[in-house]
Amino acid sequence: MSASHTDTPPGTPDGTVTARLETVRRSILESCAAGGRAPGAVTLVAVSKTHPVEAVEEALAAGQRVFGENRVQEAKAKFPMLRERFPDLELHLIGPLQTNKVKDAVALFDVIQTVDRPKLAEALAEEMARSGRRPRCLIEVNTGEEPQKAGIPPAELDAFLAACRDTWKLPVTGLMCIPPVDEEPAMHFALLADMARRAGLPEVSMGMSGDYETAIRFGATHVRVGTAIFGARPYPAAG
């Protein structure tokens, strides 16, 4: 079942976070089986941006432990108290990170998926050295080379990755992408997976509510699913 078909109005039997989460989990297992991948090969990152703490609590009660947020301030307001109750919770930053938010980001997140420029890499390295906390880092690749979008152009990835590893000593474990909305995502997923493979990076974060099954087919290790789990966002959010 496609994730894009799981959106049912709140209040219907299938409209709860728990029911939606189960549908997405089942779809991930089916996609892994179809691609000959192990059932645990893909980590579901439940994207809770703009959704209230109560929705996250319902997902936690259903066994979900990995979440994604777009904004440092929103995550800071929601997750510290949840982490006290669920110490095995893992939090991913999946939105753009400003350098003036690096201190909070390093303290709060376990994974930062959007390392996308030298200035940010340097700031992260300095804060990790200062704090002693080293969240895993993924490099965001602008696979569509869209001028308005964040991310390292594919042609510049090798040099940037080398600097992240050798100069800034960042714990880079993978790559992330957001394909152009008006293009077939498969070609972008294939490109990102190939770049990660060539670089020896084990983690590939790609695929969202409408295309995560395709992303799994092309080797995603992390899929970022929000609407298919939590429903339509309460209000518009950029990023």
TrEMBL record:
Highest taxon listed in the record's lineage: Bacteria
Key words, A-Z: Pyridoxal phosphate
Modified residues (N6-(pyridoxal phosphate)lysine): 49
Stored Gene3D superfamilies: Alanine racemase
InterPro entries: Ala_racemase_N, PLP-binding_barrel, PyrdxlP_homeostasis
Protein's UniProt keywords contain Metal-binding: no
Keyword tRNA-binding found: no
Annotated NCBIfam families: YggS family pyridoxal phosphate-dependent enzyme
Protein family: Belongs to the pyridoxal phosphate-binding protein YggS/PROSC family.
UniProt-recorded name of the protein: Pyridoxal phosphate homeostasis protein
Organism: Azospirillum himalayense
Lineage summary: Bacteria, Pseudomonadati, Pseudomonadota, Alphaproteobacteria, Rhodospirillales
